[in-house]
Prior knowledge:
Elements: E1 4-8, H1 15-26, E2 30-32, H2 33-40, H3 46-56, H4 63-74, E3 83-86, H5 92-105, E4 109-115, H6 118-126, E5 128-130, E6 137-139, H7 167-190, E7 194-198, H8 203-214
Parallel strand pairs: 1-3, 1-4, 2-3, 4-7
Antiparallel strand pairs: 5-6
Helix pairs in contact: 1-8, 4-5, 6-7
Amino acid sequence: MLxxxxxxxxxxxxxxxxxxLLESRLGIPQISTGDMFREMKDADTPLAREVRGILASxxxxxxxxxxxxxxxxxxxxxxxxxFVLDGFPRTAVQARMLESLSAQQGKPxxxxxxxxxxxxxxxxxxxxxxxxxxxxxYNIHFKAPELAGFCDLHPETELFQRADDTAEKVxxxxxxxxxxxxxxxxxxEGSGRLQRIDGTREPEEIYKEMESLVGSSVVVG
Length: 221
């Protein structure tokens, strides 16, 4: 059975990891709004030029235009079968827009939430440290380097914390996510299409459950 999988998760929940695993192991394309916006920077189409103009003005891209991007992207050949949407919809308004695409493509929507408590998300995000030399990522709470503050692979290289991973900025990001996403979860839960997965476990454990939800009935086009 072909479907549209809406993958939902807060920053740090690991939904991007799960989307990539579904793509690499089951061949289900990951359709990310972040990738679409990056693609628009170089594309020479009327839609891309309109999006670039809005972004250059400092304004937010309207829901209708974001949905047009999703429609254009999912009309490509790799989306003939089941695909994962990562980053869309973000609101109940966008979710209602997606219903028309579901009807047009003849694919039901299934929403999956990678659920992680806020206190764990905070520790995951504020604890992240990166190596500027090789890009290796550590976490002072969950995956600490052998020598505090320095990369295992490059022992003389000091790790750094991203500017948006400070405690204050992380709280704002999580509060914004919760405020925007609550109506979206209620929308899919109200129609019986929301599945919740415990995202506090190891990625492979999470993936096994994810695959059991989507893998057995997926036929990739």
